[in-house]
Amino acid sequence: MANASSTDILIIGAGFSGMCAAILGREAGFSVQILEKGADVGGVWRENTYPGAACDVPWHLYSYSFFKEVIFSRPYPQQAELLSYQRDCAKHYGLYDCAKFGVEVASADWDETAAKWTVTDTAGQRYEARALISSVGLLSRPAWPNIPGRESFAGQQFHSAEWDHSVELKGKRVGVIGTGASAIQFIPEVAKEAGQLTVFQRSAPYCLPRFDEPYGPIKQWFFKHVPASDRPMRFGIWKFGETLAKTFDEGENRVSRVTRWATRKFLESQVKDPELRRKLTPNYEIGCKRILFTSNYYPTYERDNVQLHTDGIAKITEKGVMDKNGVEHEFDVLIMGTGFKATEYLAPMKIHGSAGKELHDTWGAKVGAYLGMAVPGFPNFFMMYGPNTNLGGNSIIFMIECQARYIVQALQALKGHKTINVRAEPFAAFNQEMQDRLQKMAWATGCTSWYQTADGYNPTNWPGPTAEYRERTASFDAADYELA
Ligand code: NAP
User: Fold this and answer.
1) Mutation test of ligand 1: which of 182, 189, 291 has the most ligand atoms closer than 8 Å to its C-beta?
2) Closest residue by CA, ligand 1 atom 39
3) Which of 118, 241, 272, 459 could lock onto 394 through a cystine, CB 3.0 to 4.6 A?
4) What gap in Å lies between CA 346 and CA 348, rounded to an integer?
């Protein structure tokens, strides 16, 4: 399939998605090149180094089903352990031989005549391939809050995804904006260092406990030496995730009632002060935003040096934060735990498909892809962790493996042809189905979240169980595609 100057498959990004596509693609006999803008593999687990960074899905399920060489020290892997897992995996499968680091892709252009993609990086270097796989992740571009006066702050400020480890927090007056999945992990750690910490909460998250005792030597030995010893836990955690996902289904159901009850009981057990408990009680439908797993977040507010502020932010000033009551809170450091630009898929890259049509122009406001992977008019192009494949209650690695297997099958079907292009009908029907289903789910019940755009369109989430996604992607159906 390859010629002298190109590879069969070019993959953009070396996080969990890109690595998986590369491993399975090479195993199927394709030549692969990975382009990665960072200095190593790892994706979000290389980028997010904030204190307390860890995965809220246990490693048994938050790891590839086919690579279990690394022994984790506790159920919920911390950032450094996950990154080390990814590095070991990359070494094991020889990915460092086919990856180029420090290469940021600016654009990709489909050449109709030659039936190949030409990718150009920000330095003007070009790469060619017959097939292009975008694996740029969903949560890779930090979102800074649009709060007036942010530039006027005279102290130090940074975003959780770009943690500035050179900033000394010891004894400092620290303000944190946001109480999402990242913030609830770093707030307990910052509280230990800061002289005084004020957390500005706009909406309270629903929380469940995280049982994360470090493993003793017996458990470590067990996982290392007993083959497939992770499997029962892996299945159990997956099954739990499938059940938890029912919380997001239309209307109230038994699972959502139990989940809400469990979050309330957990809050009551950890926070005794009724006023504080009131502030920490969410005022939106459970599941509308991500449910968080943490056992050390609520107790942080019992510390004398920590204050929870819920009256809203009017503006950021030179000295700190002015709240909506007109009170100015002075800080040395401001930390933004304000999330990511998740709905801007593949930005800022420009992807030009058939007739030079750009992907974002094709999408307009309605981002979507067949099975989250393919868009008509963009031949030989697939996305990993693309539109409508994010989950609220299970491991994304499961979805990533389904996608990599499907894409490899598609590329095998391409052998003997020049192009593979998803048909307009299955693409349109799939997107319609996604939006019809999503409009009835907890995510559409009126809260603001990174799952949706401002007008309520949900380009991010998968509306069913992961078992359904696996079933629908297990065998590639050539009838959904034009092969030419
Ligand atoms: P996030 O969930 O989007 O949370 C952002 C927080 O910032 C929210 O509390 C939000 O309040 C607040 N915020 C945003 N703009 C604001 C403004 N202008 N004024 C005041 N508050 C503002 O972001 P995240 O915590 O970085 O997490 C994003 C996703 O990353 C997660 O949902 C998860 O999928 C992933 N993640 C996963 C893990 C893991 O353990 N696997 C860990 C970290 C992150 P509102 O809620 O009111 O908008």
Assistant:
1) 182
2) 55
3) 241
4) 6
AA identity, residue 270: Q
> How remote is the CA of residue 184 from the centroid of ligand 1, in Å?
9
Give the atom of ligand 1 at the shortest distance from the alpha carbon of 181: 25
Report how far ligand 1's centroid is from the alpha carbon of 143 (Å). 9
CA 146 – ligand 1 centroid, Å: 14
What phi, psi does 348 have (nearest 5°)?
Answer: -95, 20
Summarize pLDDT for 158-194 with one digit per residue, the tens: 999 999 999 999 999 999 999 999 999 999 999 999 9
Is the pLDDT assigned to residue 469 strictly greater than 80? yes
What's the pLDDT score for residue 250?
86
DSSP 142: B
* Residue indicated by tokens 């400020």: 157
Between the CA of 336 and the centroid of ligand 1 the distance, in Å, is 10
- Determine the Cα–Cα distance for residues 104 and 113; give it in Å rounded to an integer: 26
The pLDDT assigned to 5 comes to: 53
- Say how far apart CA 463 and CA 409 lie, in whole Å: 24
Across the range 325-343, mean pLDDT stands at: 97
Residue having the nearest C-alpha atom to atom 23 of ligand 1: 339
Tokens of 434: 């996604």
Flag whether pLDDT at 70 surpasses 80: no
Ligand 1 center from residue 340 Cα (angstroms): 7
Alpha helical stretches, state H, 34-144:
44-47, 79-92
Q: pLDDT band at 306, cuts 50/70/90?
A: very high
Q: Is 339 left (phi over 0), alpha (psi -120 to 50) or beta?
A: left
Binding-site residues, ligand 1, Cβ < 6 A: 55-56, 139, 145-147, 160, 177-183, 202-203, 289-290, 313, 337-340, 448, 450
Q: Which residue has the tokens 């393919």?
A: 374
Q: How far is the CA of 385 from the centre of ligand 1 (A)?
A: 19
Integer CA distances (angstroms), 169 to 134, 165, 177, 194, in order: 38, 9, 16, 5
pLDDT 10s digits, 378-401: 999 999 999 999 999 899 999 999
Distance of CA 139 from the midpoint of ligand 1 (Å): 10
Is 365:453 a contact under the CB 8 Å cutoff?
A: yes
**118, 85, 99: which is closest to 35 by C-alpha?**
99
In degrees, to the nearest 5, what angle opens at C-alpha 73 toward C-alphas 67 and 78? 85
What is the pTM for the complete model shown?
A: 0.96
Residue 408 clears pLDDT 70, i.e. is over it? yes
Per DSSP, helices labelled H in 93-230 are: 183-193, 217-225
Tokens read off for 484: 């030419």
Predicted confidence band of residue 3 (pLDDT cuts 50, 70, 90): very low
